[in-house]
Amino acid sequence: MSDPWHLRGRARALALAAALPALAAALPASAQPADAISPARPGQPAQPAGAARPSPAARPTVVLPTALAPEDAERAAPLASALDALLSDTAQDLGLSVDLADRVASRARPDEAELVERARASDRLFIAPSLDLRGDDVELRLALAPGGARSLRVRVERVARDELAVRAAVMLRDLVAELDGGASAALPRGEEVPCSERCRGRLATPARSLGKATLAANATLYGGLVGFSIQRSSGSDDPRLLYPLLAVGAGIGLGGAIIIAEEWDVGVADAWYLGSGTWWPTIAGHLIYEGRFAEHAADPDQERWASGLIGGTAGITLAALGLSLGRMSEGGALMAQSGGGLGLTLGALVEWAARGDVDRTPIAGMGYGAALGWLAAAAAATQLDVTASQVLTIDVGALLGGLGAAALASPLVFESPTQGQQRAWVGAAAGGFLLGAGVTWYVTRAAFAGARGARPSWNRFGLPMMGVIGESVVGSRRAPALGLGWQGAIP
């Protein structure tokens, strides 16, 4: 999880930039030159500056605490506290007068009908944010209830956690700017809306195909490998043929990646998921051929490279089919990569156990394990909602469990071990590998989506919080008061 206290600093400049149009529109006529007039259009009289439409700035505003789902209350509490402070600061930067008197401690989702009724009964603007964790991303929902209005203005966006501060500031600015969006309809016929109004909401837009560089790098390297494999499988070692094939293969890979990134919105996780389908099946093809068929082939060097091409082509096809089911999360992409590596390790242990000889390199077992491990993990990644930290935690637990068990059972393979002793050592290592992964998953299972709903949270009595707890007023100037507090439900 990103550092929640870093959110305010990252979005401060953006919030100030977003506030400039609203602050400029909020200036009273007395703050402008008395003879300032708007530019006259042909056939129209000049309009005094004081006749400009009023701005919604400086209206009393209540920023409600960020609402959280019950299953996300523990994990997202620090993020929500930082978002509360960020939205309060952004609202003041936009010229709104934030009223902290009506803030409540509960993070339960407010009833929208009641929120509209509260807004209709007062002249204050209510801002109701909410957060939902979606794997590595966060779904941010901002609802605005203007005073006297009969409806809500809502904006929902799913963003990466590192981009939450920026997108929250932009979303709030856009919603505030839309409050008087109907004023443009009252302009005289033929009068153009000023750019300061037309261009609102275009300060920052999500970039398209963020994974273009990753996709291009993988495609270029694999294209070069394809050219080299074609040259080696043809039986030629002429460098006059090798270098053109390398250049052509890399160029086709790079060009294809650019075309794909322009045609589809390829994320970073999508690119790494596709890369896992490129490299692990290719490695598996080489290892399987070398371990099972090379000793029976007339020219194993040529056929090994062809086997790698077949594996890589099949892997890319399966990965593309997986991406056709939907966008891939960072946790899913890492799961696919991890599945190839962990499968390679388990495959080696299985072959050692079958042969009873740990001195022989288990090439075939590594190949089969890499292929099956990647395939299983890539398929699971399209169905599970996991984060990268969860996958890494389970990987570390599996490796530590396997290494620890292998170290404890190492006396079995001292001096001249029998086949039974070697199999026992391999079984201990494999058992520790699986036990480490299982224990790690059990300990962190509450972090998986939906796993907390069946049992009460350990922090049901509340947690300490740091944020806005009051307001300091000196004359006409207001400032939020930061401090420590305790937040939670009363049992």
Give an account of the 3D structure.
By secondary structure, the protein is an alpha/beta fold. The protein has helices at 6-26, 73-93, 112-120, 164-178, 195-198, 212-233, 239-263, 268-292, 300-323, 330-355, 363-381, 388-408, 419-444; strands at residues 60-63, 67-68, 97-98, 125-134, 137-145, 153-160, 463-474, 477-487. The strands form two sheets. Strands 1, 2, 3, 4, 5 and 6 form a six-stranded mixed β-sheet that branches. A two-stranded antiparallel ribbon has the order 7-8. A hairpin with a 2-residue loop joins β7 and β8. The longest helix has 26 residues, at 330-355. Mean pLDDT is 77; it is low at 1-57, 182-190, 195-204 and 449-459.
Short description:
This protein is of the alpha/beta class and 491 residues long.
The helix-and-strand class reads alpha/beta
Question: What is the share of helical residues?
Answer: 40-55%
Q: Beta-strand level of the residues, as a percent range? A: 5-15%
How would a crystallographer describe the biggest sheet?
A: 6 strands, mixed
What is the number of strand segments? 8
Q: What is the average of the pLDDT values?
A: 77
CA-to-CA gap between the ends?
A: 29 Å
Rg on CA atoms, Å: 31 Å
Q: Secondary-structure element sequence?
A: HEEHEHEEEHHHHHHHHHHEE
How many alpha or pi helices? 13
Give the helices and strands, then pairings.
Blueprint: H1 6-26, E1 60-63, E2 67-68, H2 73-93, E3 97-98, H3 112-120, E4 125-134, E5 137-145, E6 153-160, H4 164-178, H5 195-198, H6 212-233, H7 239-263, H8 268-292, H9 300-323, H10 330-355, H11 363-381, H12 388-408, H13 419-444, E7 463-474, E8 477-487
Parallel strand pairs: 1-3, 1-4, 2-4
Antiparallel strand pairs: 4-5, 5-6, 7-8
Helix pairs in contact: 1-2, 1-4, 2-4, 6-7, 6-8, 6-9, 8-9, 8-10, 8-11, 10-11, 10-12, 10-13, 12-13
